[in-house]
Each structure stands twice: as structure tokens, then as C-alpha cells.
Amino acid sequence: MENQQKVKSLIDLRLEAKMGGGEKRIASQHSKGKYTARERIDMMLDEGSFEELDMFVTHRCYNFGLENEKYLGDGVITGHGTVDGRIVCIFAQDFTVFGGSLSETMALKICKVMDIAMKLGCPVVGINDSGGARIQEGVTSLAGYAEIFERNILASGVIPQISAIFGPCAGGAVYSPALTDFVLMTEDNSYMFVTGPKVVRSVTGEDISIEDLGGADVHAGKSGVSHFKVSNEEEGSMLIRKLLSYLPQNNLEEAPVSDTTDPIDRLDDSLNSIIPDNPNLPYNMKDIIHSIVDHAEFLEVHRHYARNIIVGFARFNGNSVGIIANQPNFLAGVLDCDASRKAARFVRFCDAFNIPILTLVDVPGFLPGSGQEYAGIIIHGAKLMFAYGEATVPKITITIRKSYGGAHDVMSCKQLRGDFNYAWPTAEIAVMGASGAIEVLEGRNINKITDEAEKTSYIAEKVSEYNEKFANPYQAASYGYIDDIIEPRNTRFRIIRAFEALQTKKVVNPMKKHSNIPL
Ligand code: HXC
Fold first, then answer.
1. Which residue among 133, 382, 407, 476 is the active-site one?
2. Which of 160, 271, 328, 377 could form a Cys-Cys staple with 333, CB 3.0–4.6 A?
3. Cβ proximity of 499 and 396 under 8 Å
4. What are the tens digits of pLDDT across the range 368-403?
5. Would you say domain 269-427+472-504 falls under CATH 3.40.50.1980?
6. Mean pLDDT of 337-355
7. Where are the beta strands (DSSP E) in 205-296?
8. Which residues contact 496 (CB under 8 A, 6 or more apart)?
9. pLDDT of 415-441, one tens digit each?
10. Atom 55 (ligand 1) nearest CA
11. Which residue is catalytic, options 21, 144, 406, 418?
């Protein structure tokens, strides 16, 4: 073959590879409202930045006539590119090739790109759209999955790993996304489950639709498997790009600092009156978050799951910060199993990737009752405490209103390595709320009173006495457990000052193989 012919042949092969499973299957993909793997990568990365690897890899299977059906690149597109100019490794399963099902060579391609990400110290984004293990390949496909899982595990806490679910993700295939830091699902087109509806029906008799079993609503709202739910792939890609902007490239780097025009000493007078006089009335903690962060921009993680606690990323003076905040607007901001797990996972992510943590506290306590006890609130609460207590990143805690009992300790108190613990004058820091405390302390006296009116007035008097003494931040401040009581409208400035001071913080945990967090 002449040299010019060789070049032409290369160009033809590249064109062939770019057609994946062929025009008909691409059309079918589009007809389902889904993009192809290459279109998805183009959407995710900076324009023209994608460098593809392993375009000429094909499968090596000789079962079921597969030797006669080969597609260049097999069922996954891999490579690297940039997001806002920063390098990212990426893979996108190609549903047009054997339904994106995982072959031995596909696994090798994914592992290669993950290894490169580890070498370069850059994030990996995986786009999942696959029928699971390639059935014709048998155990080599299972082994391929396990190779990927092992890499997910070793990369955890070293480079950020993000999974987009833009189609089916079933069987053991769900475990790679589950091992990554963030999972994002599209409404309507994506689903995740260990066993599909048909198997569920035959094994347990339960009749359930694919959406009700493993759709985005289920995983974003009920199971917490998915951190983000988006209405379409465009929104998903933009969200992942945004998420990456808050993260460092790896665990040895700091998150990028953005230019900001939001003044560090911006006061917000409305904060001085945001807390209702009646301590039983709710308010929206997100109003406080939006008021204090740069340009009111807050990227909420796990928005639909355990809404009694809020977690997400924002910036203070251009610096990335992870925020954890109780939400009095939902279940009074109580800590339950789900909220504890959600916040613990977020604290550990921030700590692994050098992202300072701001905790805003308004928590009436742990949710009481057999339901929570049977579900293991002790262990789940301990997870959050462990995560805070182990974290070495700068930590600022602002007690906005309630901070009662065990929940006070768990929510980044001074003794669990809170660096600067401030309180608003509206804070109530105590062992428990007034009515519970009076019932315990005064139960015998109250029972002796037979006249109902007299009883009510006695209780009211004791409650008011208790509130006077404990429903404030001054007792905690007198012990130095609270470093300062701050004017609410000045919160942003005090936070920025405190994080500035903490820039050189160094705390090292004792040497060990790893800790044994109560999982
Ligand atoms: C080989 C597969 C495949 C698979 C789909 N295809 N899944 N090929 N292995 N696992 C092929 C189909 O034959 C078809 O080929 C093309 O992909 C598109 O599939 P359709 O069924 O036409 O698409 P759709 O109607 O959209 O349905 C998608 C689907 C369905 C729901 C994902 O394909 C499906 O149920 N697949 C099997 C899922 C499964 O049970 N996987 C194994 C799970 S066990 P043509 O040539 O017609 O285009 C597992 C273990 C992993 O994954 C363990 C790891 C630890």
C-alpha cells in the first residue's frame, strides 16, 4: 500500500470507529432522548480538548459468533481532555456497541484511563450507559469489573471520581459508581439496581416498575445512592463541570481559587432578624447560606435526600468550602440515620481533598424512637462524629440556634477539633430542650400538684428559669467552648477572617494502617 493510501486508510478507520455500533443504533439512541458516548464527552469537556485513546481496540471473544461482529473501540470511549482548562480523564460507555456491555477489553480500556488519572493526579469522570456484563464473555467480564472496582477503591481519596448515569446501570455494574465520590442520574432515562424488576418478581413476588425500583427519584430521594438528579444530559454535564470547579485535582493539591467581586465585609442586616422569636418556628437555613457565601452561589449535594441536613459547596472570598448545615425547615433539623450518613460522607470527602468545612448548627437533637434505634442511629450518628473528629482540614462552626445534647457534640463542637466555634446571640446550647429537661428534673414535684392550672404555671415558671439559664450561648462561651458570640449580620466577614487565619493549620493524625470508622 502506498503511503498516501495508508493515511487514507487511517482516516477511514477513524471514521468507522466514530460510528460506534452504526447509524441505526445511533438513531435508536437519539430516539430515546439520549446522546451517544462521543457526544456526551464533547458536552462534558472544553471544546476540542478531547484526546481519544484506544480507538482501535476490539473485543477478543469467540463465543456465540461474536468473532464476526467487531466494532473499533469496542463499547467504551476513553481519553482525556480539559474542564475549564484543567485536565480530566474520562470514559463513556457506548450503548450502540453491544448495549455498552462490559467486555474484557472494555475493562482494560477503562482501567488504563484510570491508571493515567492516578499517574497525572487528575479527576476521572465515568459516563455509564450499559447492559452490564457482556453475556457472551462470561467470567472475563466479571474479572474486568473487579479490576475496575479495585482501581476505584485505590483511587478513593486520591483523585476525585465522578459517575454520570445516563442510561441503564444494572447488576454488579452499579458498584463502580457506588465506589466513586459523586453519582449523578438523569430523570426518565437512567436507572440503577442490583437486580432488575423481572428477577425481583420471580424471587420475591414483588411487582415493581423499573423507575420505582431504581430510577433517579428513588436514588436521589430514598436510597441516597445518587447525589444529584438532573432533568437531562445537558444539565448533568454542566453540573459535573461546576462540581469540578470546587475540587482540587487530587489530594495533594488545594481547590482552585476564583476571582470574586463579592466584598469580604459585606453585611446583611436581615440576618439579625431571621431567627423567629418562637424557638419552635422554622426558618430556611438556605437563606442564611445564600446570604453569607460569595455571590449567593451554593452547589447543593444530595438535595433530595435527608433534607433535614444540608451539604454542599460554596466559596468564601473565592476559596472553596464544604458546608454542612441543619435545616430547621425539614423535620426541625433533627439528626436521624440518613442525615448522619449523608453528612458524614460529605465531611470525609472534604477532608480527603483539603476542602475546609463550615458547619451551621441548629439541631434539636437526635430523632428519638424505636424506628431510629432499630435502624442503628447509634452507629450512624457515630459515623458523623468520627468523620468530624478525624478531619484535619480547617473547621469553623457557627451555632445559629439550637445545639442540644449528643447532637451538639456531633456537629463539629470545639472538643471534636472545631477550630473556631462561634455562636449567634440566638444560640441555645444545652444538654436538652427546656420541656424535656423540666420533665426529668421536676417530674416528682409536678406530679404532686393536683390543680391543672397550678401545674401548668409551675411548669411554665421552671421552663422559663431553665431557658434563662441555658437557652443562650453565654454559658458555653464562659467555658471557652464558644470562641465568640457574633452579630449575625457580620457572619460572612467573621468566617472569611477565620478561614484566612486557618490557612496554615497543620494537624496530623496518629500513624495507623487506617481508622475503623463505624460503617
Ligand atoms: C451483551 C447486550 C447486553 C449484555 C444488551 N446487549 N445487554 N449484549 N451483553 N449484557 C445488547 C442487545 O443484545 C442489543 O444488541 C443491544 O445491546 C441493545 O439492547 P436492547 O435490549 O435492544 O436495548 P433496550 O431495549 O434499550 O434494553 C436495554 C437493557 C437490556 C435493559 C439494558 O438490553 C437488558 O436487559 N440487557 C441485559 C441486562 C443484564 O441482565 N445484564 C447482565 C447483568 S449481570 P443489538 O445487536 O440488538 O443491538 C452483571 C454482572 C456484573 O452485569 C457483575 C459485576 C460484579
1. 407
2. 328
3. yes
4. 999 999 999 999 999 999 999 999 999 999 999 999
5. no
6. 98
7. 228-230
8. 264, 316, 317
9. 999 999 999 999 999 988 888 888 888
10. 172
11. 406
- Length of the chain measured in residues: 519
CATH superfamily of 49-245: 2-enoyl-CoA Hydratase; Chain A, domain 1 (3.90.226.10)
DSSP one-letter code for 223 = I
Question: Are the C-beta atoms of residues 429 and 476 closer than 8 Å to each other?
Answer: yes
Is pLDDT at 72 greater than 90 in this prediction?
A: yes
Residue 151 parent element (H or E)? helix 139-155
Task: Report how far residue 103's alpha carbon sits from residue 145's, in angstroms, rounded to the nearest whole number.
Answer: 9
Ligand 1 centroid from CA 79, angstroms: 24
Q: Is the pTM of this model over 0.90?
A: yes
In the chain, the amino acid numbered 76 is: V
CA separation for the pair 356, 353 (Å, rounded): 9
CA torsion, points 300, 306, 307, 310, in degrees to nearest 10? -40
Q: What is the dihedral angle through the alpha carbons of 463, 467, 470, 472, rounded to the nearest 10 degrees?
A: 170
Cell of 280: 419552635
What pLDDT is recorded for position 468? 86
**Can you tell me the distance from the alpha carbon of 433 to that of 129, in angstroms, rounded to the nearest whole number?**
50
Please report which helix (H) or strand (E) contains residue 467, including its range: helix 452-470
407 is catalytic: yes
Please, are residues 166 and 129 in contact by the beta-carbon 8 Å criterion? yes
